[in-house]
Amino acid sequence: MQLASPPAPPAGPDSAADRPDLALGQPQGWRERLAAWRDRRMADPAFRTWVLRTPLLRRVAQRRARQTFDLVAGFVYSQVLRACMELELFERLAGGPVQPAALARAVGLDEAALDRLLAAGVALKLLRWRAGGRIALGPLGAPLVGHTAIAALVEHHHALYADLADPVGLLRGPAGRPATSRQWPYTVHARPDSLAAEQVATYSGIMSASQPLIAQLVLDAYPVQRHRLMMDVGGGEGAFLRAVARQAPGLRLRLFDLPAVADRARQRFAEHGLAGRAEAVGGSFLSDSLPGGADLISLVRVVHDHDDATVRHLLRAAHAALPPGGTLLIAEPMSETPGAEAMGDAYFGLYLLAMGQGRPRSPATLRALLAEAGFVQIRQLATHLPLQTGLMVARVPGHEAAA
Ligand SMILES: C[S@@+](CC[C@H](N)C(=O)[O-])C[C@H]1O[C@@H](n2cnc3c(N)ncnc32)[C@H](O)[C@@H]1O
């Protein structure tokens, strides 16, 4: 096998003279020099062609190209998923493979249009072809049958999708209010505790529907049953506490959220026969102190919604409400999570920007904020799916430590 020698490196834009606006520095140390050399080569089309023609390097080049094109085309893949969900294809195929013509009639699309969607769905492993030209669930579509949590997330993305049509505009600060922030009115309202029932209904419904993505992961990672009274702050409609109630029958439960949200939680607790065991307290952690008495406080998908000043205030309030030895849990997707960096830093980073406040935080950042608020024994607990939630546990100093 004869290998062609690689083309000479291009004269890339690697000097400060080429980009005077950036005042580029020289690479420091051999690692940076090597990386700079490699980056210059990778930026050269002739070098990339040579790599593709070289058997031993081709696989790496193909994988990199696929990753790049996934980034280029990812928004289309998301919309293919959305179309499948809007047309309820996964539920329609749950009973087994069907003929595309029958499916086209059922969803009200002409056959050619449906064929195009089916081909896209097959390519994305949402669907798969079966003998006789029938279409069936694929490996990624099968778990989505009746998956109301994913359905709620996909459906509510229409706002984020609109905001991201101009990502640089979003980063610069959009002229108007991003559509995403309108979905979360507490992020922009001066007095969130005065939000009315109809203003909290949509986001509370989305949170409740998507809570199953989180609850069991948290409960598998932390034994809540060792506590007496758990207070879930920013607990929404109580979906998390309902899962806790099933797991820990002896635990008393309290939810704290904005008054209009707490009303919804109270109603849900009554519907689920929990009225005698779970109470819902309305208030704002921005202006009210948190009720005392709980030996465990949870903040589930709450901290990342807020800027650092509010988080400092909230953690101090949680510390003040807990007894000596009391425990605080923080559960949310975290940045810099190995294997889930894209979810924490790309998805939530941009999502929270469009929402108008908050940021994804790394375990190290949360640890520092918790320590500043006076917590000790701060630990990160592993969850089975850190992509969906990470978990931090911390204690108030004192003799009553439960563990
Ligand atoms: C992203 S949702 C998470 C809901 C729930 N913990 C879950 O994971 O499904 C954030 C929650 O914090 C509540 N919240 C926001 N600002 C608040 C405040 N100032 N005081 C009390 N609750 C607040 C919202 O009403 C909402 O229910």
UniProtKB/TrEMBL annotation:
<feature type="domain" description="O-methyltransferase dimerisation">
    <location>
        <begin position="70"/>
        <end position="131"/>
    </location>
</feature>
<dbReference type="InterPro" id="IPR036388">
    <property type="entry name" value="WH-like_DNA-bd_sf"/>
</dbReference>
<dbReference type="GO" id="GO:0008171">
    <property type="term" value="F:O-methyltransferase activity"/>
</dbReference>
<keyword id="KW-0949">S-adenosyl-L-methionine</keyword>
<dbReference type="InterPro" id="IPR012967">
    <property type="entry name" value="COMT_dimerisation"/>
</dbReference>
<protein>
    <submittedName>
        <fullName>Methyltransferase domain-containing protein</fullName>
    </submittedName>
</protein>
<dbReference type="GO" id="GO:0046983">
    <property type="term" value="F:protein dimerization activity"/>
</dbReference>
<dbReference type="InterPro" id="IPR001077">
    <property type="entry name" value="COMT_C"/>
</dbReference>
<dbReference type="GO" id="GO:0032259">
    <property type="term" value="P:methylation"/>
</dbReference>
<dbReference type="InterPro" id="IPR036390">
    <property type="entry name" value="WH_DNA-bd_sf"/>
</dbReference>
<dbReference type="Pfam" id="PF00891">
    <property type="entry name" value="Methyltransf_2"/>
</dbReference>
<feature type="domain" description="O-methyltransferase C-terminal">
    <location>
        <begin position="198"/>
        <end position="375"/>
    </location>
</feature>
<feature type="compositionally biased region" description="Pro residues">
    <location>
        <begin position="1"/>
        <end position="12"/>
    </location>
</feature>
<keyword id="KW-0808">Transferase</keyword>
<feature type="region of interest" description="Disordered">
    <location>
        <begin position="1"/>
        <end position="24"/>
    </location>
</feature>
<dbReference type="InterPro" id="IPR029063">
    <property type="entry name" value="SAM-dependent_MTases_sf"/>
</dbReference>
<dbReference type="Pfam" id="PF08100">
    <property type="entry name" value="Dimerisation"/>
</dbReference>
<keyword id="KW-0489">Methyltransferase</keyword>
<dbReference type="InterPro" id="IPR016461">
    <property type="entry name" value="COMT-like"/>
</dbReference>
